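As noted in the main text, all predictions were made from sequence alone. Below is one such record, for Small ribosomal subunit protein bS6.
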Amino acid sequence: MNRTYEVMFIVRPDVQEEDLDKLIEGFSGTVTSNAGEVKSVEKMGRRRLAYVVRKFQDGQYILMNVAADGKLIAELERRLRVTEQVIKFITVRTDEEDKRLAKIKAIRDTKVKRSAQSSEAPAVVAAAATTAAPAAEPEAATA
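Prediction:
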């Protein structure tokens, strides 16, 4: 069963751009060769780290969205761990969060429909009141 994961890893700041591309292609190849799918890869650029990691204060951030099973993610994490250029990584499972957000969105959509209906209802009541008002005026005039 394929699940959706976000894999973020930080690469040493002294790695050249073409070496970084080869590194990303290598990790993407690992995923695709083992029946996984790389949904997107985003280079977030060079940023300052919150604290010193392996004597580095900066790093190049890469975010990969991957659809794969748990064994493949374990293999990808193993490769991230042994790759010298990668100084830190984290993997987060996001499919449960996506389901939760979809459920909340569906609930919000139903509330919007009800509010749209309630905004139409006062217009109908106001239209009915304007047609009823002329009939009430002659009675007021006779009294």
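The chain has two domains: 3-93, 96-136. The chain has three helices and four strands. These features were considered when defining construct boundaries for the mutagenesis experiments described in Section 2.9.
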